Amino acid sequence: MNNSFELLIFLKQKELLKDAPKYWWPSHGGFETLIGAILTQNTKWTNVEKSIANLMQLNLLHLEAMAQSDIGVLTYAITPSGFKNQKSKRLKQLCNNILETFETFEQFQEEVSREWLLSQKGIGLETADAILCYCCCREEMVVDKYTQRLVETFGYTFESYEELKAWCEYGINENFDKIVQLYGYNITLNELYCRFHGKIVEFMKINPRV
Ligand code: 39A
């Protein structure tokens, strides 16, 4: 394995996203993704799905509704994804900060920067990139513990999140034209990053010993 392009090819052959949504994250480009990116911290995805279903039933999956929500109701709704008190406070505060800074969710998607996200309580590098990539459709690849473990099995170790992310993005960028040909349609760099990260997560879920 010489670069991330070869890693993509290795994973692509396994057809890991055959039944998945186009961008892997089901609500790509929507408000639900912003919330999911925070809820998924330190928990399993199946728990996030339960919290999202609760929020949907309560009609809280809208920026204004969550900003104005009763904290007790919000905390109860997100209980399945753990750290309920901390996460509910952070979600409500984040929604209020978005309204104050960007006024609308659409303007937030257009204008938010990585720096702004990183200045929010409870948003670290991985969550900021998940929001940028999956919620704001930006050309930012998400890397995580799964990515780190997988590349380690191929002999790569990185000092930091940023170095691992740069390695993943570089091999894809350098071979972008070849990848578009392989896919057979004008896949965007955002879609490619979404699918590459999704493939890594799905591969690691079915190969837990890697
Ligand atoms: N860990 C995860 C996931 N597992 C996921 N899906 C499956 C669809 N998403 C969107 C985020 N994090």
TrEMBL record:
<keyword id="KW-0408">Iron</keyword>
<dbReference type="GO" id="GO:0006284">
    <property type="term" value="P:base-excision repair"/>
</dbReference>
<dbReference type="GO" id="GO:0003824">
    <property type="term" value="F:catalytic activity"/>
</dbReference>
<dbReference type="GO" id="GO:0046872">
    <property type="term" value="F:metal ion binding"/>
</dbReference>
<dbReference type="GO" id="GO:0051539">
    <property type="term" value="F:4 iron, 4 sulfur cluster binding"/>
</dbReference>
<protein>
    <submittedName>
        <fullName>3-methyladenine DNA glycosylase</fullName>
    </submittedName>
</protein>
<dbReference type="Pfam" id="PF00730">
    <property type="entry name" value="HhH-GPD"/>
</dbReference>
<keyword id="KW-0004">4Fe-4S</keyword>
<feature type="domain" description="HhH-GPD">
    <location>
        <begin position="39"/>
        <end position="182"/>
    </location>
</feature>
<dbReference type="InterPro" id="IPR011257">
    <property type="entry name" value="DNA_glycosylase"/>
</dbReference>
<dbReference type="InterPro" id="IPR023170">
    <property type="entry name" value="HhH_base_excis_C"/>
</dbReference>
<keyword id="KW-0479">Metal-binding</keyword>
<keyword id="KW-0411">Iron-sulfur</keyword>
<dbReference type="InterPro" id="IPR003265">
    <property type="entry name" value="HhH-GPD_domain"/>
</dbReference>
